[in-house]
Amino acid sequence: MKQFQIQVAQAGGPEVLEYVEADIPTPGEGQVLVQVAAAGLNFIETYQRSGVYEVDYPFTPGTEFSGTVTELGPGVKHLKVGDRVATAEATRSYSQYAVVDAELLGKVPDSIDLRLAGALPLQGCTAHYLTHSSYMVRSKDVILTYAGAGGVGLLLTQMLKLMGATVITTASTQEKKDLAKAAGADYVVDYDQVPQTVKDVTGGAGVNAVYDGIGKDTFEMSLNALKRRGTLVLFGGASGQVPPFDLQRLNAGGSLTVTRPNLADFMTTPQERGWRLGDVFGWVAEGKIDVRIAAEYPLAEAGEAHRALEARETTGKVLLIP
Ligand code: NDP
Asked: Fewer CB within a 10 Å sphere, N or C end of the chain?
């Protein structure tokens, strides 16, 4: 049986994402085959496509998706054909059909539309581990983050507000600023206004923590924004990777902490996965968190979706529909 999927023969720009015919894979022990309803677009796939992260070729990107189980491999007990599922931990989900370990899937609550479910697991669980585990946010913390209208940014701001923090964030256009504000951010400013805003909001003390997904362009500004013993959570490099730096900088800045976390290290057991997916889907089902799907591209146009994400043209979530 055949399907269509995206394949990359060698690292390069968005044009290397080719829409090709391929075999539908067979689920092995503990795996299921899922018909993909929506594959979420995430920055990691641009790093993999362009060669920043090493992958084996031919490579089919895709980490996050939602869909319907169509076949069970041997030994799968807790799922059945027809179940609606989603995950942040797949491989090769830029496909019409994907095989995935059953234990990596969460069931989608009946009240959540399957496409919406494809927009949530990766960025939702990322915002969850950043705020609940990487640096544990306390009520009354002042938090600086960037790209407040981005996929992670909109969810992160809403979670920070649920936890009682004051949120300072950035956005590069007025439309993006309006979205970040609507998500609950207290201060939404241009990138070059960050130092002054932090000074004004904290009376010169600095923020408790910075969540920085921009990387190269903002790293220094992030360190400078921290209060004594503050924490910088560097979780991405949308502007490029941060070069090596002198650890004495942390001493001089006031016993600062820097961490560079990765979602996979915060989804290590069924309990941890269930906690994060359960909270994220639960908050959406209860209306506590709003998910913005800003664009849906046919899977065949994955290259155009990558170009738009890297060109800062997107807001919220971008989905690829097979
Ligand atoms: P976004 O939707 O946030 O898109 C990136 C945004 O970054 C842009 O829209 C833009 O917003 C801002 N930006 C600032 N400078 C640049 C630049 N030079 N090039 C491109 N964008 C820039 O993406 P995601 O929500 O998918 O991801 C955000 C970050 O989170 C990424 O760095 C990603 O790698 C990281 N991430 C990390 C995870 C982890 O576990 N460590 C998991 C998931 C995501 P504006 O125009 O408003 O400045």
From this structure: N
Q: Answer yes or no: do 219 and 96 share one domain.
A: no
The reply to whether 107 and 178 lie within a common domain is no
- Return the pLDDT at 138: 98
- Ligand 1 contact via 226 beta carbon (within 6 Å): no
Q: CA 309, CA 297: separation in Å to the nearest integer?
A: 12
Same domain, 131 and 217: yes
| Residues 2-40: tens digit of each pLDDT | 999 999 999 999 999 999 999 999 999 999 999 999 999
Mutational pocket test of ligand 1: of 41, 42, 190, 191, the residue with most ligand atoms within 8 Å of the beta carbon = 42
- Residues 133, 103, single domain; the answer is no
What's the structural domain count of the chain?
2
- Rounded CA-CA distance 252/118 in Å is 44
Ligand 1 atom with minimal separation from the 238 CA: 32
Residues 30 and 116 in one domain: yes
pTM: 0.96
CA of 46 from ligand 1 middle (Å) equals: 11
DSSP result, 269-287: SHHHHHHHHHHHHHHHHTT
- Please give the pLDDT value at position 119: 97
**Domain carrying residue 63:** 2-120+291-321
Q: Decide whether any atom of ligand 1 lies within 6 Å of the 312 Cβ.
A: yes
CATH number assigned to the domain comprising residue 183: 3.40.50.720
Confidence of residue 196 (pLDDT cuts 50, 70, 90): very high
Specify whether the CB–CB gap between 63 and 93 falls below 8 A.
yes
| DSSP letter assigned to residue 92 | S
For residue 267, the model assigns a pLDDT of 97
Q: What letter represents residue 276's amino acid?
A: R
Report yes or no: 283 and 276 within 8 Å, Cβ to Cβ. no
**Is residue 270 in a domain?**
no
Atom of ligand 1 nearest to the CA of 149: 47
Q: Is residue 250 part of a domain?
A: yes
Question: φ and ψ at 272, to 5 degrees?
Answer: -65, -45
CB of 238 shorter than 6 A to ligand 1:
yes
Q: pLDDT digits over 85-116, tens only?
A: 999 999 999 999 999 999 999 999 999 999 99
pLDDT at 317: 97
